[in-house]
Structures are given as C-alpha cells and as structure tokens.
User: Fold this.
Amino acid sequence: METPKNVQKNIMSENENKSPIKIFSTPKGLNVVKSPVKSIILSALREKELSFDEIVGVTGKSKSTVSVHLKALSQDGVIGSKTHPADQRKKIFFINSRYIGELNQQEVREREEEKVEFLIKNLINKGDPFEFFRLMFHTLRVVMIKEGVNLDPILNQTGMRIGEVFYRQLENKKTGELLKNLADFWVSNGLGRLEIENLNPITVWAYDCFECGLLPNVGESACALDAGILEAVFSAHLSQKIIVNEIKCYAKGDKYCCFVIESLDGLSEELSPD
Ligand SMILES: [Zn+2]
Assistant:
C-alpha cells in the first residue's frame, strides 16, 4: 500500500498546520507528543510494526530526520525496537505505549459553552436518577471538548472492557440471536434502540443514542464508548479482531448512529455470519 510522495507531502503540511498534541501512556509515565512527524510515525505504528525504511516512506521525510525522531521516541519509552527476523542488520519498530487522547489548543469551541449551560439546567430540572447521570456524563464530555481535550481513546477502551463483560451475558453462536440479545439489552438499560440493518457486513443503527443524542453537532462521529462495546462483543463472537466504523452519528447531524462491523483487513466478506 504505497502512498505517492506528493500526496504524503499534502498530508504532512495539513497536519503541520493543525496537528493536535497527542498524549501517550508509557512504562515511564505520560508522554506528550507535539511534533507532527512523530505523530505520523506513531499513527502508523499503532496500526502495525514497521521497519526503518517503511517509516521513512510513510513520513516522506529524510532518513536522518526520521532517525532523530525514532531515537527520541525510543528514549522516551513510547516505542521499542527488535531485530528484523529476515535481516539481522535491520530493526523493526513497534509501539510501546497506549494512546490516551489529544489536546487541541488552537480550536476554542465557543458553541460548547451554551451547550454546557443547557445540559446543567436540564441536570437540575429532571429529578430522575438515570437522566441525572446520563446528563452528568454529557456535561463532563462537553466541558472537556470545550477545553480542547478529546478523551475518545479512553472512552473506547472503557467500552471494550464493558463489552467483554456484556458478551458473556449476550453470547449466542447465531449472529442473529446475538444481535437480538444486544438490542434487548440496549432497550432494557435505556441506552437507546438498536436496529439491525444488514448482516453482511454487520450494520447496526442506533436511535436515541445515550452517548451522543445530546451532544452538540461536533461535525464528527462521537460514540467511542458504543463503538468499543460493539468491538469487544463482535471480536469475541467472530473470534477475530474487528473494527467498528461509526459512519453516521447524531453528533455529525445525522438522524441516527450507524455502526459497521468490519474485519481489520477491511475484508467484510470474511465476516459473513452463519
Ligand atoms: Zn453516535
């Protein structure tokens, strides 16, 4: 999967203009990555292990520049390296830390202030414990978005932990039955209403989504927790690592959220259920 150099340059210059600060948790503690080149290296390594030459190709930077960045990331404990199995003289680099989130300093979202006020007013008026905690969750999240903190990776990990536990209750060898159990679970816990739109690839629509239904239109999908739950449930069900793409979301201005379950290689036919 070669990306032409000129396309790569465009990606780089876009990233250099508005690259947010990324935060990683390493064995040595938290590490804050500001450099756009480092961000690109880490994004690529989050997908798979890469050799030095492959990293040079991905960044479109000179070997000496890449070498300096790799050395710094290794010293900080963000990445690690090992000998290439096919060539003793070469190294393979891998990520040695967890992606926690990012800070976007340039973007101040004034609209969010109104939303915070709206949510807090509702929080006081409802008098329903479930609604209270739901609104608390939203308020916390909107305040963080307003302050430029994106905690989606942590929400996603939390969702995966929840999904692993849910799966034991919902488990059924037949995909249709599992989806039915999941939909029942969603309704009985007030998480919204799920509709199964397609089985190949597995496509789920969520109405009245608890996670994003009250979020402001942030222009992008926001259901990192839901996606994490679905990811864990279907990874366990299909006995393979899958990814969940939220292609529609209330937070993007859509009328429902739409999750598509895909295999890690994008080979959806492999996921065709029984
Ligand atoms: Zn959503």
Q: What stands out?
A: The CA atoms of residues 117 and 222 lie 20 Å apart.
